[in-house]
Design goal:
With 138 residues, the chain is an all-alpha fold. Helix content is 38%, strand content 0%. Among the domains are: 4-57, no CATH class; 103-138, no CATH class. It has six helices and no strands. Helix 2 (18-25) packs across helix 3 (32-40). The longest helix is centred in the first third of the chain and has 10 residues, at 4-13. The relative contact order is 0.09. The structure holds zinc ion (ZN). The site of zinc ion has 5 residues, from loops. Zinc ion (ZN) is lined by residues 72, 74-75, 80, 84.
């Protein structure tokens, strides 16, 4: 499904022929047909990947990925992955490719491993040795 802002931005940025527009956007000239399909709204000819290439060239954010979960064979209720066998299911966050979960770093165990900035800060504030506290101030 082509998003309307893709069509609008492409229409605004269109200069001359579609092949010339491809060159102006840094897309290969063979994408002229793709641009034509986007402008005319021929959804079946434009994959999400192809539209995202054009969106990025237009300075738009790529479309978010949509995941369809199959209906659960046990409960048939709220969509969730797999079969819950009638038990409560935990909600999870699906990360996009390249995304990762960051956990806070543990503070170094020794004073010698602290950065100069953190040591200077600790000395100026006359902090007692509390690695957990230093980590929070980072
Ligand atoms: Zn279920």
């Amino acid at each position: 499904m082509i998003l309307s802002d893709t069509q609008e931005r492409l229409s605004e940025r269109r200069r001359g022929t579609l092949r010339e527009t491809c060159s102006a956007l840094g897309l290969p000239k063979k994408d002229a047909g793709l641009l034509s399909d986007i402008i005319r709204g021929i959804h079946t000819n434009v994959s999400d990947e192809a539209e995202n290439r054009v969106r990025v060239a237009l300075g738009l954010a790529p479309k978010p990925k949509v995941y369809q979960l199959p209906e659960c064979p046990s409960c048939g209720g709220e969509p969730h992955h797999g079969d819950c066998h009638g038990k409560t299911v935990a909600q999870v966050v699906v990360l996009a490719p390249g995304e990762r979960v960051r956990s806070p770093r543990k503070p170094p165990a020794k004073w010698a491993d602290y950065s100069v900035r953190l040591l200077a800060q600790a000395i100026a504030q006359r902090q007692p040795y509390q690695p957990e506290h230093l980590a929070v101030c980072r």
